Amino acid sequence: MANLLFYLFTFLAVGGALLVVANRNAVNAAMFLLLSLVGVAGLFVLLDAALMAFVLLLVYAGAVVALFLFIIMLLDTTPGAQKPFKKATIAASTLGGALLLLGIVSLSKRGMLPAAEATGSVPTLKNYAEQLFTTYLLPVQIVGFMLLIAMLGVIVLSKRFTATDKAS
Amino acid sequence: MSPYGLNAYILISALLFAIGFFGVLLRKNTLVIYMCLELMLIASTLGLVAFSRFNHTLDGSVFVFFILTIAAAEVAVGLAIIVALFRKRHTIAVEELNTLKN
Questions:
Q1: What is the pLDDT of residues B36-92, one digit of tens each?
Q2: Is the Cβ pair B62, A131 closer than 8 Å?
Q3: Which of A147, A29, A143 is nearest to B64 (CA)?
Q4: Quick one: which H or E segment has residue B79?
């Protein structure tokens, strides 16, 4: 059963990712990004990180993809024809793709990673909270400030600066 | 509970990252490029969670919290920049945004 789920989630994640890249329409690409996210969240559950899966779905599917869709609808760009690629670009991407594929295959064939077992206790919400509020207290504070700065930045960026604004 | 070893998860993570990377290189729509960037972030997240699980530590998973937070901030700022760009130039296709080239 777990084997089957692993293959299903892998298929969802990788297939969704491929369709994000291959799709011409931005709205469809966002939908396939959502599919890929669901696959990755399923893999998180298989790795006993159900909390991470929940947070991933909440933040990405709930906020990020919705924001993407909102902006796509707002800008309303036509999916018009893409200019053909230059010969050098095609050659470089083919070479890069071949090398990358070779690297991934060789990694999976003779990876020197120890055959670790995923045993032991499953981390609970309490463990996460303890870590976040003891070892990682400073990073949590910094990330909070970072969010505040991002929010201020977005307000500044989306404010329309006109001549009357500067005069006042 | 996980039926396969660390290698399988690292392989999926590498594949997702590669797909996202090629999306960034090949696509011309800024919004889709942004989605592919998100895909790369998610791929690294999967790798971190797998390492954290197989090493019996919690550090990787805690790091994922921070990655998600930064990703959310990044998306907000990036999309605001894209909207500002569209307002000024009326296009978001990267091949038409070549003012710095001349």
A1: 999 999 999 999 999 888 888 888 889 999 999 999 999 999 999 888 888 888 888
A2: yes
A3: A143
A4: helix B59-89
Cβ–Cβ under 8 Å, residues A6 and A46: yes
Tokens of B17: 């990252």
40-59 in chain A: CB under 8 A from chain B: 40, 43-44, 46-49, 51-52, 55-56, 59
Q: How confident is the model at residue A56 (pLDDT cuts 50, 70, 90)?
A: very high
DSSP A58: I
ipTM of the complex: 0.89
Closest by CA to B49, choosing from B81, B16, B75, is B16
Q: How far is CA B59 from the centre of its chain?
A: 21
Q: Is pLDDT above 60 for A60?
A: yes
